[in-house]
Amino acid sequence: MTPNTQPLADIANQQLETAMRIAKIALDGAERMMKFQLEAAKQAVEDAAKSSAQLAEAKDLPSALALRTKLSEHSLESVMGLSRTVYELATQTQAEFTKLAEEQAGALNKTFMANIEKVSKSAPAGSDVLMSSMKSSMAATAAAVESLTKASKQVAEFADTSLKAATTATADAVKNATKAGKQG
After folding, report:
1. Does position 168 have pLDDT exceeding 80, yes or no?
2. What is the DSSP letter of 124?
3. Measured between alpha carbons, how far is 119 from 11 in angstroms, rounded to an integer?
4. Average model confidence (pLDDT) for the chain?
5. Any idea what DSSP says for residue 60?
6. Which among 6, 16, 53, 116 has most CB atoms closer than 10 A?
C-alpha cells in the first residue's frame, strides 16, 4: 500500500501560490513607489529650474523676498502632497496584504472545519461533546479574528483621517504664518 501524498502536494502548491502572490504584491507596491519617486524627482528638477529663473529675473530685494516666500509655500505644498501620495501608496499595498491574509485565514478555517467534520464522522461513540466543543471553539476563534480585522480596519481609517486632517492643518498654519510674516 502506497501512502497518499496528494494532500501534502496540495498544501505545497497552495503555499507556493501564496508565496507568489506575496511577492507580486510586494513588487507591484515597490514598482508604484519607484515610478512615483522618479516622477517626483523629475518635477523637483523642473521646479528648481523655474524657481532659479524666476529669482534671477527679480528686479529688487523686496520682489526677490516676496518671490522666495511664494516659492517656499509652493515647496511646502509639494512636500505635503508627496507625503500624502507616499502614505496612500503604502496604504494601498498594506490593504492588498491584509486582503491576502484574510483570504488565507478563511481558507484555513474552512479546511479545519472540514477536517473536524471528517474526524467527527469516524469518532467513537460519546465523542459528540468533544466534537461540538471543537466546532464551537473554532467558530468563536473565527468570530474573534473577524472582530480584530474589523477593529484594525477602523484604526487604519481613523489614522488615515487623522493624517489628512493634520496635513491640512499644517499647510493652513504655514500659509497663515507666511501671510502674517508678509503683513508684519
Report:
1. no
2. P
3. 19
4. 83
5. S
6. 116
